[in-house]
Every structure is written in C-alpha cells, then in structure tokens.
Amino acid sequence: MMELILWRHADATQSYPDHLRELSARGRLQAKAMAQWLNPRLPEKTRILVSPAQRTLQTAAALDRPFHITEAASTATDVHRLLTEINWPYEGGTTMVVGHQPTLGEVVSFLLMGEASLWSFKKASVWWLTLRERHGQPMAVVRAVMSADLVEQEK
Question: How far apart are CA 35 and CA 8, in angstroms?
Fold first, then answer.
C-alpha cells in the first residue's frame, strides 16, 4: 500500500527569477507549523521528493529530514511525469512531494476523479492520500487535508 503526501510550498516573496524566490516571513512560520504537524505523523522512512526551487527547498527543510531534489516536482513538471517519478501506484511505503501549483492540485484531481483539473491547493497545505484496492482496482482515498492556518490555530 502506498501513502502519498502532497505539500505545497509555503508563502514566498514576489521576486525574480522564479526559481530563486524565498519564503516570506509568513511562509517560514507556515512551513514550521506544518512541519510540526507532519513530523509526528510521518513514518520514519518517508521518501521526500522536493522541487529544486528555493521556496520548496526551504519548506521541506522545516521537516529536518533528508530529502531528494527532483525536476519531476518542479514548476515545469506535469501530472504524468510526477506520478511516474513517485511510481504511483506501485511504490510501497510513504512518499511526500513538496511542490507547486497547479501541478499538485492537478495530481489530486487526477487521482481522485480520473482527470487532471485545476483544483485549488492553498500555500503550505497538505493533501494526504492512501492507495486502496477496490474490486481489484487501485483507488486513491483522502486520508487528510490540512492547511497551515488551521495548524497555526491549533496552537
């Protein structure tokens, strides 16, 4: 069984070039809050794949866990390239992707509805999907959806 966690980068500055944009002060707080929510829930051997963009690297760094940088999670990727990289639905264990809109929303849409549509994916939020089998067919099921502002309210 595969667990897939999609984490959109936290709030970033509006600077150029795009791949060098850093987290804003608000984004650093969002990343830290979400990391504090995620860390006790993540299995020890979670595979973490991160876009090479600065804002995603900074978001992932808040977890204080090893991660692998991949272009398959970059702003230039698409649903099929990302799903191929994570080996959905064949990979076992838990995989987390720290990436960008619109791709993350399209991945959720594709896995739940069978079509890549433009679904909104709030900054610093997480969608946690579990792969189940129903009548011999793989099926994605939502395990959790959490936003940074809800995590911050819990404190």
Answer: 12
